[in-house]
Specification:
Length: 775
């Protein structure tokens, strides 16, 4: 597929723009609803004598809730993504990944422009289900948000863009931008500099006409070049026109090189206007100097190997028809448009009826009575002409209040169902009783289903943009200053041969609940319940996620649970105790230590020592390891007392048993070696002495073990007593809190019931007085 004629490209782009016109009209209606535009047009208000025309901002509020949930999900974590590598030495991969993640995300987090890009994409996803963004050139890492109406995609294109042959981006160049392109130090030869000069002259001419200025100092030919060489500030006014273009990209394998080529042509067509049932288009004669000319033509040169290097789209598609196509995407705005628009109209009619019910109507027989009614002044202790007759409430048109309430309630129910995954709802059942935990979790699970179908899509597609941004940060030829600074920082610790996109994997950072605060807290509570069952590293990550869920502050979460934790007191004390135990000294158990950390550290130290000793060690080393085993066994017994940690204690006990099997094997080899040495010397007395020495050593070890075991048991009983006392105190305090809370809820319930009874009594008295006055 080749495009060598500018008129052909212009015609294709214009046809895609015309095909997108009805779709854009529907998008405009959704935008108006969420922007708070009233439901009735000015013509409808005038023709139907409508008195109340108000947008009650229900859709606006739901859109805000949906955007906030998306922003919580993607902007709340400390990093946008995590970078990992499987290249290079295995001992350095983790550090390299942490460094790359920290340096790149630090630059991205500091960029306010990228923050606004994310906000724009989330807002576009809420309204239209599509969040496009594109890059200005191949050097910059920062992507710019793109309006859905500015990205022209052929019909029947899949959301994966697998069958995308070409596409067009609508762009508008200001005069300063064209000046920057034409006056740059290194100008891309694909730009048509002569056509750029013609565009600048046209802007000059149109600006002069629009501003009504003929100042010779401003528009004299000698001043034009100086003005162009300047910063172009004069061209930044609201009345200065822009050059609208079709930025056209197409895929081709010309010259056996696959990739995307680029063409730019001027958009010299006018905006379509409705004419009857169709549309009427006409050429804009003001811009006719660039017809059938390229503003930019890359020729056979490939601009990008992949479409993701030009633009990306994040989808939040709620469409039900497969296969999913780009122009069939259905969004939250689409689901809410009809019912919210209808609800606004219904509320307008309801408000109009309320106003009418507050008016006074008089029944008159002639114009004289009407004039008397107009002159009537109602005041305290006033007088009314006996000729005036009020129209009673029974004689007036009565609105079916029940039907109105039913209609408003049904619409509100539909709105809540369609937006349940994006907004918070009061956790009460239909009879105003507080829902049970099971009911809340069931509704949250149902809400999560829709999140998985819509909002979670955004996170998945957003990873494509993260991968492209990371690739651009690794580009050694980039002229972007921020990219160059990031590469310099990475090259200090990572060899350049590993700074290639193929060696890295990017994974988007996600929060619990996908941005839904209620669901996030429920998941955090569940994780904390099962946290002891996870590995220590996973426990730390769970604690960090829960801290982030509670505080909504990634900096505070990292401060409370740092990425590289300091050595805890339990680990430090265990390391000191290991040296003392190996020397045969007695070590008492100190209360307050982390049993899991103590056992894990001691087992690791024992394993390292056994490997250092080789096939057999000295009697003193074996005795020291035996002391460490008894010390560890005491903490395993303490750990077994916790019902939730019994499986962990069992696993630790198995590891300790395997280590002690190795120690027994080493002792047997040591004894055999001593016997062989004695036989080789032919000294029976030596053999007997060796046996006596062995027996004495065993007796000493048993005596020392007995003393240490007694001390450990005593310490264990003391620790067990203290733990039981703390548990009893905590349980008593919890029972008191529960009773106090139940008492408080009971008092609140009684107060509410009493308040409702008083209100009902007042309503009955008012109704009674009203009936008596009417009679």
């Amino acid at each position: 597929m080749e495009f060598k004629n500018a008129e052909q490209v212009q015609q294709i782009c214009w046809e895609m723009r015309c095909a997108d016109w009805p779709r854009d009209a529907n998008r405009a209606r959704i935008n108006d609803l969420f922007n708070g535009v009233p439901p009735y047009s000015q013509d409808e208000v005038r023709d139907n004598n409508i008195n109340v025309n108000v947008n009650f901002l229900e859709a606006t509020r739901l859109g805000h809730d949906a955007r906030m949930q998306g922003q919580q999900g993607i902007l709340k974590p400390g990093n946008y993504f995590v970078a990992r590598t499987d290249a290079g030495p295995s001992s350095k991969r983790v550090n390299w990944g942490n460094l790359s993640t920290s340096v790149v995300n630090k630059t991205m987090k500091r960029s306010l422009s990228y923050y606004e890009n994310i906000r724009s994409k989330i807002g576009s996803n809420v309204l239209h289900g599509i969040g496009p963004s594109c890059w200005e050139n191949s050097d910059v890492w920062l992507a710019d948000p793109l309006g859905v109406e500015d990205l022209l995609i052929p019909a029947s294109t899949y959301v994966t863009f697998k069958n995308l042959p070409f596409f067009c981006i609508l762009r508008s160049f200001t005069a300063p931008e064209l000046i920057k392109i034409s006056r740059a130090k290194k100008v891309d030869k694909a730009w048509n500099k002569d056509l750029i000069e013609s565009c600048l002259k046209w802007i000059d001419r149109e600006s002069m006409a629009l501003m009504g200025s003929n100042w010779p100092d401003t528009w004299s030919p000698s001043k034009v070049e100086e003005r162009v060489k300047g910063d172009g500030g004069y061209y930044m006014g609201d009345q200065v026109p822009t050059i609208d273009v079709f930025d056209f990209y197409y895929w081709s394998d010309e010259n056996d090189e696959e990739g995307w080529r680029r063409r730019i042509v001027l958009d010299d067509w006018s905006t379509p206007a409705s004419a009857g049932t169709g549309y009427q288009f006409s050429r804009n004669s003001a811009v006719d100097f660039g017809r059938n000319q390229w503003l930019y033509n890359s020729g056979a040169r490939v601009i990008a190997q992949r479409r993701e290097e030009i633009f990306t789209c994040a989808f939040a598609d709620l469409s039900a028809v497969t296969p999913f196509r780009y122009h069939s995407v259905r969004s939250l705005g689409f689901l809410l448009y009809a019912v919210c628009h209808l609800q606004n109209r219904l509320r307008c009619s309801f408000s109009k009826s309320v106003f009418e019910s507050l008016l006074m109507y008089f029944q008159v027989g002639n114009m004289d009575e009407a004039e008397r009614a107009l002159k009537l002044e109602l005041a305290d202790k006033g007088f009314i002409d006996e000729g005036l007759k009020f129209v009673k409430n029974a004689d007036r048109y009565q609105v079916n209040a029940g039907l109105v309430e039913l209609g408003l309630g049904e619409n509100q129910k539909l709105i809540s169902q369609n937006s349940s995954s994006f907004s918070s709802a009061s956790q009460f059942s239909s009879d105003r009783d507080r829902k049970t935990k099971f009911q809340v979790q069931a509704e949250l699970q149902q809400s999560q289903t829709l999140i998985s179908a819509a909002l979670a899509q955004f996170f998945t597609y957003q990873e494509v943009e993260y991968r492209e941004i990371f690739r651009r940060f690794l580009n050694p030829k980039s002229r972007d200053v921020e990219v160059q600074n990031v590469r310099k920082r990475l090259l200090r610790e990572i060899p350049e041969k590993y700074l290639v996109p193929e060696a890295w994997e990017i994974e988007a950072e996600r929060t619990l609940g996908a941005g839904n605060k209620t669901l996030e807290m429920v998941q955090a509570e569940q994780l904390m319940q099962y946290r002891p069952l996870y590995d220590p590293e996973a426990q730390r990550q769970i604690l960090r996620d829960v801290t982030l869920a509670i505080t909504d502050d990634p900096g505070r979460a990292n401060a409370y649970v740092p990425e590289q934790p300091h050595i805890s007191d339990s680990i430090h004390d265990t390391q000191l105790a290991f040296g003392s135990l190996m020397q045969g000294a007695q070590v008492n158990v100190r209360p307050g230590l982390n049993n899991v950390e103590v056992i894990g550290t001691m087992l690791q130290l024992m394993d390292n020592k056994i490997k250092q000793l080789g096939p057999m060690g000295s009697p003193a080393d074996l005795a020291g390891i035996q002391n460490c085993a008894q010390y560890t066994q005491g903490f395993i017994q303490l750990l077994e007392q916790d019902e939730a940690m019994k499986s962990t204690a069992k696993a630790f006990a198995q590891v300790l048993s395997k280590l002690m099997n190795l120690v027994r094997a080493m002792a047997q080899r040591l004894q055999q070696a001593q016997e062989k040495a004695a036989q080789a010397n032919g000294n029976g007395n030596g053999e007997a002495a060796a046996k006596i020495q062995s027996i004495m050593m065993q007796a000493q070890v048993k005596q020392q073990n007995a003393k240490q075991s007694h001390a450990q048991k005593t310490a264990q009983r003391q620790i067990q007593f203290e733990q039981q006392l703390k548990q009893d105190q905590a349980k008593a305090a919890l029972d008191m809190q529960i009773k106090a809370r139940e008492r408080g809820l009971d008092l609140q319930t009684r107060a509410i019931e009493k308040h409702l009874d008083l209100n009902n009594e007042k309503i009955k008295q008012r109704m009674k007085s009203t009936q008596e006055s009417e009679e």
